[in-house]
Write a structure and sequence with these properties.
The protein is mainly β. 11% of the residues lie in helices and 32% in strands.
Length: 174
Amino acid sequence: MQGKAAGEGATRNPVVVLDTTLGTIKVELSVDKAPVTTKNFLDYVTSGFYDGTIFHRVIPNFVIQGGGYPPEMTRKATRPPITNEAGNGLKNVRGSLSMARTSDPNSATSQFFINLRDNTSLNPGPGNPGYAVFAQVIEGMDVVDSIAKVKTATKNAFSDVPVEPVIIKSAKVE
């Protein structure tokens, strides 16, 4: 059973299943390393927020990003931003999930990205607050790679948007 207490080694980390139009992606959350971020992500998952949203930014050999827009690209209202937990020891490696944010390190809300490669420039360092890793793909990396190969174009003011929307049909805790 999944537990809510952070830092309990015997507690199983929650697994979230993202059912997309291109297949299923399972991610294991790191409650002990990113308690604020995982709670935030789980709150969005359990409220149904991600259902019907798209991967709106696809950059091959870098990231796929989603969690903020439906296919018509009208931004969804979010909860308040969270504290950046990028200094938690987790790295932006292939298959890891991090929170997307603006130039303000503490601006992450609902959007997340999946790293398609090791992106060391997204890790925290001197003068770089980094991006908070909070989960890892444990199943469905082939689906992530399929999403990375879709044709993209500019839509509204956004670049790298899939021409054919890649929809998160549902996001559920396993």
